[in-house]
Fold this sequence. Notes:
- By secondary structure, the chain is of the alpha/beta class.
- The protein folds into two domains: 46-136, Orthogonal Bundle (uronate isomerase, domain 2, chain A), CATH 1.10.2020; 148-481, TIM Barrel (Alpha-Beta Barrel).
- It contains 20 helices and nine strands.
- The chain has helices spanning 13-23, 37-42, 49-54, 58-66, 80-90, 98-111, 122-132, 140-146, 163-171, 192-206, 213-229, 249-260, 267-288, 304-310, 325-337, 354-362, 386-399, 419-437, 445-464, 473-481, and strands at 28-30, 149-156, 176-181, 234-239, 291-296, 298-299, 318-319, 343-348, 374-376.
- The chain has a four-stranded parallel sheet with strand order 4-5-8-9, with helices on one face.
- Strand 2, helix 9 (163-171) and strand 3 form a beta-alpha-beta unit.
Amino acid sequence: MAMISENFLLQSVAARRLYHGYAADLPILDFHGHLTAKVIAENPRFRDLSEICLEGDHYKWRVMRANGVPERYCTGDACPFDKFTAWAKTVPYTLRNPLFHWTHLELARYFDIHELLNEKTAPAIWQRANERLQSDALTPRGILSKFRVSALCTTEDPLASLEFHEQIARSGFATRVFPAFRPDNALRTHDPRAFNTWADELAACTGLNIADLSDFLEALRLRHDEFHRHGCRLSDHGLNHCYAEPCTPREAQSLFAALRAGGHLSSAESAKLNSHLMIFFGRIDAEKGWTKQLHLGAQRNLNSRMLELLGPDTGFDAMGDWIQATSLSGYLNALAREDALPKMILFNVNPSDNYLFASIAGCFQEASSTAGKIQFDSGWWFLDQKEGIELQLNALSNCGLLSRFVGMVTDSRSFMSFPRHEYFRRVLCNLMGDEIEKGLLPDDDELIGTMIRKICFDNSAEYLALPTVVDSTPFAAAEQRS
């Protein structure tokens, strides 16, 4: 029997009822990822299986390196078939790594291939997959339609032109593609050269002369406004930890002036200025009803030699162990005191922080029209696998309301990652089904199934309030036309 069967990961009768009855056919709302609007707009055909399967996928590169595969077969100049063969040789060694599941789920869902991938099966799988890649169903837009992606958000620097988002919007494509605002380059206050280069580019982009902090904030606000006009309703930060140091406007202005003059700020000074900027970003998000995402705790680019050779986002990041409690609660509290706390989604990369994040979120669920205003979200990065997903679901259930959870994201640069939503849904249904079987939850499919449907799609659609109605209707119309 093929491993990816209709009941993959569903270990009880109740789990199977829940998944097939309530979760399997729902659309996807992928509100955090790193796909590019340019590729979606231009909709090129993938050259071969290596391109769609391996390019940019640092998860796979990491295990290939761990398996002794030379770098030329990961990010280097080896031919595509040889790269794929090197990956195929590695796959049998990934048993109990989530990549074993993900790889075979991808082969099944994209190419209807159910054989296990290994060195022996690689040539036939290569040929069959490449034949299927000639179909319009496996172009970038074809994939988004195939997986019923109702909406997705790309992660964009404030300087991004957004021209490709405009192009997609004008095309009438069923999947809504929105930018998410990620102003982390404004927080590079520890590096005067990088900061000032970016600030000069911001000035050119907005037509403002950035002479002082007020000019800088006005330029950022202008870009925030422009993103809003393009349908953006989310911002995002990828930080070691929050910034929550007290900083008066006068102090911030003085520090900004020193930085703009090319001076180096101390670590404490940089933290103060960044704290002031983060409060500003929270305020403008709240003013527009946006949702702020905080991705906290990753150590990035640990291998400096490989960073110099390959650049960032190539598989040399890890979990961090920063003290998160004081900084995260301090940041939320500073915004709450101003009545400027936006909707917020918290992601942690270290599982030791699960209960910390979940319990802090509960302290800021202030009375508002938004249920679940502060979200402790899905297992992220190293935690978006079965055990990590279950740990997050358990912490959220014990400290908050699982029924208000806004669900899974791919956080991916690969068009092969959409089955991770299916993976999450199966894990969720298996967890709930197991507790039904044990008598820990009522044997009431309508009660439990309705919650599952909300977690997998409805809650995120309602919570994010994207400017276009997000449901399955466009896909039904597209399927009817086809």
